[in-house]
Amino acid sequence: MVEVATSILSIKEGKEADSFLKLEIAKTDYFHIDVMDGKFVEKNTYQKMLENVSYIKRISNLPLDVHLMVEDIKTAVNDFLAVAPNIITFHIEACNNKEEIYKMIKYIKQNSCRVGIAVKPNTKIEEVYEFLPYVHMCLIMTVEPGKGGQTLLKDMLKKIDTLKQYRQKQKISFDIQADGGINLKTAPEVKRVGTDILVAGTAIVMANDFKDIIDELKS
Ligand code: DX5
Ligand code: ZN
After folding, report:
1. Which of 25, 36, 147, 219 has the greatest CB tally within 10 Å of its CB?
2. Does residue 199 line the site of ligand 1, with CB under 6 A?
3. What pTM was computed for the model?
4. CA of 20 to the centre of ligand 1 (A)
């Protein structure tokens, strides 16, 4: 059964507390926290996401899935480790070389947090292969990172399928997460190609019944 991580990025100003409570009741599998620094991507959600996670921690024990879209990964890791997330995922495109990627993977794990690596649509899937034995998850962006409410890029489906086949061939175990433009229409094909965790933002926060939409995305 796939899991659903709800991206809180698109929750309307002032509706945060109400939406977080509804998501707790709807038992989303994860709160997906989109951290943006205004450099790696245009938007800056850094402070807002720090506030959001401390609030969520107070009202829910559901796991936090932190997606870092930042250049200064180490600072962001230190800031978000404070709320003991279940997993921290960073973009390999924000690292200057392989050593940096290995160092960051090790650093996150040394702080008893699970670690994921993320790739943008234009990054070849082969770029992640060597790191896969050392991470818990690989996040495939199915939209350009930077904002919610975009349309899923169909050619990312092939990328997910390739990754799933590579995982089977190499007998490594890690979760495949797809992030961006996932809704009731696109979820079936995203699941079919092997995704384990679906990230959905707009599709869930716009729905009037969070539990229904989350269950439908999973079914
Ligand atoms: C985009 C974020 C995604 C996005 C998903 O940079 O990483 O998590 O918020 O939102 P929807 O589901 O609206 O595409
Ligand atoms: Zn995300």
Report:
1. 36
2. yes
3. 0.98
4. 17
